[in-house]
């Protein structure tokens, strides 16, 4: 087994953050994320929860300090709390600094208390509007009230919430100030995200894309935004909003590439490791995991993969670039 803390990529970046997409399935069909008629992976291709846990443990042994479960919707994976509970043991030993998840909130009312009990301290909840009808339209299948109940349950359980909002032209751009006041008024940070060209969807991404430089300029007409060095380990750059006293993050993969400080890799539910969200290159960890009871083979496969982590992605959204930058949907690698 390699020594802890040994994952350094060719650009000198230490890989300390693993995001795990535990399922590609979701109970929503957000229009910028998925096509309505999605084909999901056959169940037989999925790693079992035990295999996922074993892979995570190898990464933790190799220096991962933060682990985020995502998807698809992580809380729709059957028995997901078993995995959370198993992973929480690494919090107790001090091997892991943080175990967290990104969720659409639909199942939070059921799971919030148990998540908190497992040592999860903060979670990201994705929410693009506060209008129940618009919510239905953007998620296609989501029920707004369920998400609100989920958020309440999470806060009642003591989980800190950050709202993730994809900024969508003509959809929620005028609503962001209200969402900001709403989130900050309830003690939640908020992050806005540029839509990324991942996977074929039913709509034209050029129509959805709102550069955050434009959104920020508009917000500055109503709010005093001060850049702050606050970091959560992710790619967001934060400002403090004087009028609300809360923090607002900007994730700008298109207008400002954030790759230079990338510290992460992404594992899918089939054991495929993506070294970059925006590139096709990947490494299969399922075969080395299954071919031996020891972890040496899989550890070597991880080292080999980290050794070819690319410098960054090159997302572009414009009318001449019709194809997505990567063919897989965000739901495969997790947001
Ligand atoms: N189901 C969970 C959720 O809703 O948070 C986790 C997975 S979801 C794919 C993670 C995040 O990716 C969500 O905030 C979603 O809005 C965002 N997302 C999906 N497709 C995107 C895209 N093409 N560009 C930017 N963000 C995207």
Largest sheet: 12 strands, mixed
Strands of the biggest beta sheet: in what spatial order?
7-8-9-6-5-4-3-2-1-10-11-12
Give the names of the bound compounds: S-adenosylmethionine
Whole-number radius of gyration? Answer: 19 Å
Number of helices: 11
Helical content (DSSP H or I, runs of 4+): 25-40%
Total number of strands: 12
Approximately what portion of the residues adopt beta-strand conformation? 15-25%
The N- to C-terminal Cα distance equals 30 Å
pLDDT < 50 stretches? none
Kindly report the average pLDDT value. Answer: 93
State the secondary-structure class: alpha/beta
User: What letter string, H or E per element, gives the SSE order?
Assistant: EHEHEHEHHEHEHHEEEEEEHHH
Q: In one word, what is the shape?
A: globular
Structure in a nutshell:
This protein is an alpha/beta fold and 335 residues long. The protein has helices spanning 49-61, 80-92, 108-117, 132-139, 144-156, 176-185, 205-208, 212-219, 286-290, 296-306, 330-333, and strands at 17-21, 66-70, 98-103, 122-126, 160-167, 189-194, 225-228, 237-241, 247-251, 264-267, 272-274, 282-284. Helix content is 30%, strand content 18%.
């Amino acid at each position: 087994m390699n020594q802890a803390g040994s994952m350094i990529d060719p650009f000198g970046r230490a890989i300390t953050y693993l995001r795990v997409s535990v399922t590609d399935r979701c109970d929503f069909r957000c229009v910028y994320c998925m096509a309505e008629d999605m084909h999901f992976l056959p169940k037989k291709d999925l790693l079992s929860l035990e295999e996922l846990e074993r892979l995570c443990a190898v990464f933790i042994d190799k220096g991962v300090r933060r682990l985020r479960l995502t998807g698809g919707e992580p809380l729709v994976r059957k028995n997901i709390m078993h995995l959370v509970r198993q992973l929480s043991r690494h919090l107790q030993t001090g091997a892991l600094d943080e175990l967290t998840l990104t969720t659409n909130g639909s199942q939070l009312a059921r799971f919030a208390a148990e998540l908190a009990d497992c040592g999860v301290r903060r979670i990201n909840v994705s929410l693009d509007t506060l209008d129940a009808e618009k919510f239905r339209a953007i998620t296609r299948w989501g029920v707004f009230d369920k998400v609100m109940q989920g958020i309440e349950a999470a806060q009642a359980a003591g989980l800190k919430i950050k709202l993730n909002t994809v900024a969508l032209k003509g959809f929620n751009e005028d609503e962001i100030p209200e969402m900001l006041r709403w989130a900050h008024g309830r003690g939640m940070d908020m992050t806005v995200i540029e839509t990324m060209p991942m996977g074929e969807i039913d709509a034209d991404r050029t129509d959805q894309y709102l550069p955050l430089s434009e959104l920020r300029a508009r917000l500055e007409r109503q709010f005093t935004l001060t850049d702050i060095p606050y970091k959560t380990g992710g790619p967001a750059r934060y400002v403090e909003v004087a009028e609300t006293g809360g923090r607002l993050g900007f994730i700008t993969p298109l207008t400002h590439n954030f790759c230079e400080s990338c510290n992460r890799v992404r594992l899918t539910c089939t054991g495929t490791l993506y070294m970059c969200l925006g590139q096709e290159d990947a490494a299969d960890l399922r075969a080395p995991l299954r071919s031996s009871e020891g972890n040496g083979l899989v550890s070597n496969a991880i080292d080999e993969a980290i050794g070819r982590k690319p410098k960054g992605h090159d997302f572009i959204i414009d009318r001449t670039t019709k194809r997505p930058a990567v063919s897989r949907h965000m739901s495969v690698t997790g947001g």
